[in-house]
Design a protein that fits this description.
It contains 5 helices and 3 strands, in the order αββααβαα. The protein starts with a helix and ends with a helix. The chain has one domain. The chain is mainly α and 180 residues long.
Length: 180
């Protein structure tokens, strides 16, 4: 199972990177900077494709912090790889979540290293312009929250009704350690 475990992470991450980089190349090749295009005219008030660049973080904050965000992305990649290595084989949804986050972080890192900025183009009119990597990072975090919520509910269902949550032993500690 060791190889299959890593294939899921790398497969998801590589798919995210591929879709992200191809979509950004299409945007750069077909739209001038700040040009916008409405693929569905009826949705123009809500959604357009807008070619912008971003040297900052999410939502365009901290513009000019490209080097900082390169370092942060590299650290995030290594943290994901380390955490992924620690997982048990049964948590496939968590593996997918981490693959989405890894691919998203790597996709934007590739832009930062290659160009010094990230290409953004998905423009919901009520939200800052983003890209495929950003969407995958958010989706990965959402899946992570779902996994955590499900695990919390599973543990709560195993707890005796009269035991407060802070007195229940975790899977990693013996029951006697929870009462010390």
């Amino acid at each position: 199972m060791r190889r299959e475990k890593w294939l899921l992470l790398l497969g998801v991450a590589l798919l995210v990177i591929l879709v992200d980089q191809v979509s950004k190349a299409i945007i750069v090749a077909n739209l001038d900077l700040y040009e916008e295009w409405a693929p569905i005219e009826a949705l123009r008030p809500l959604f357009v494709i807008t070619h912008v660049t971003n040297t900052g973080a999410a939502f365009g904050i901290l513009q000019g912090g490209n080097t900082l965000f390169q370092i942060v992305a590299i650290v995030v990649v290594f943290v994901i790889l380390y955490f992924y290595h620690q997982l048990t084989d049964r948590v496939w949804l968590l593996r997918v979540a981490l693959g989405l986050q890894l691919g998203g972080a790597a996709g934007n890192l590739i832009d930062r290293l290659r160009q010094g900025y990230v290409v953004d183009f998905l423009h919901l009119k009520f939200w800052p312009v983003s890209n495929v990597s950003d969407v995958c990072i958010v989706a990965g975090v959402g899946l992570l929250l779902i996994v955590m919520w499900r695990e919390d509910r599973r543990r709560a269902s195993m707890r005796p009704a009269d035991t407060p949550p802070d007195e229940v032993a975790s899977d990693d500690e013996p029951a006697s350690a929870a009462h010390q």
